[in-house]
Amino acid sequence: KQEVTQIPAALSVPEGENLVLNCSFTDSAIYNLQWFRQDPGKGLTSLLLIQSSQREQTSGRLNASLDKSSGRSTLYIAASQPGDSATYLCAVRPHFGNEKLTFGTGTRLTIIP
Amino acid sequence: GAVVSQHPSWVICKSGTSVKIECRSLDFQATTMFWYRQFPKQSLMLMATSNEGSKATYEQGVEKDKFLINHASLTLSTLTVTSAHPEDSSFYICSAPRTSGGATLYNEQFFGPGTRLTVL
Fold this sequence. Notes:
The complex is a heterodimer.
Chain A: E1 4-7, E2 10-14, E3 19-25, E4 32-38, E5 44-51, E6 56-59, E7 62-67, E8 72-77, E9 86-93, E10 102-103, E11 107-112
Parallel strand pairs in A: 2-11
Antiparallel strand pairs in A: 1-3, 3-8, 4-5, 4-9, 6-7, 7-8, 9-10, 9-11
Chain B: E1 4-7, E2 10-13, E3 19-25, E4 32-38, E5 44-51, E6 57-58, E7 67-73, E8 76-81, E9 90-100, E10 103-111, E11 115-119
Parallel strand pairs in B: 2-11
Antiparallel strand pairs in B: 1-3, 3-8, 4-5, 4-9, 5-6, 7-8, 9-10, 9-11
C-alpha cells in the first residue's frame, strides 16, 4: 500500500528566503506526482505535475523535482512571500488508468513578513 | 483552467438528518468524479469514485449506505450523508478529471472548493 509522507509538518520562514518542502513515497512505481496548495478552509489548487519520466518542473518561483527510484520529491519555493502561506500537499498517481491519488500528510507553511 | 464548484460551501445540521452536497464541473464534462474527506489538520482521504450512469465504487471502510453517491449527468455528482452524526463532521472535497472525446484525461484533476459539514 502506497504511503506518502511530508516533512516537516509545519514550517515558518522569514519573507524572502528560499525553502524546500519534502515529499516521500514508499512505492516507486508511480505514474506521476502532483503538488497542490490548500488555503485554510478551501479546496486544492494544482501547482505542478511531474510525470514519472521527468526529473523536474518549473512554474514561476516554484520548482518541483522527482527522484522516482528513491521515492522522493521536493518543492522549492524561491524568494518566499507572505502570500505563499498555505498548506502544501503532494499526491501520487499509481499508474496510467488508475486515477486514485494518494495524498501526503501536508506541510503547513507560514511566511513571516 | 477547468472549474469545479461545490454547493453548499458549508452546512450545519442536527444529528440524524441527511445532507446533500453537490459537485459540478462548470465548463467541462466529467464522467468520473471523486469524493474526498479531510479531517482537521489531516490529509485528504478518498471516499469513493462517482461514475456517470453507473454505481459508485467505494473505498474500503466507507459505508455506501451512509454516503450515497449519485452521478446524474456529465457535470453533476451528489454526495448525500444519510442520518448524519457528529463524527461525520468533516471537510468534503470533490474532484474531477476532464473528459475529451469520450476518454477521461486523468493526467490532472480539478478540485472543488470543499464543503464544511458540521453535525450537532
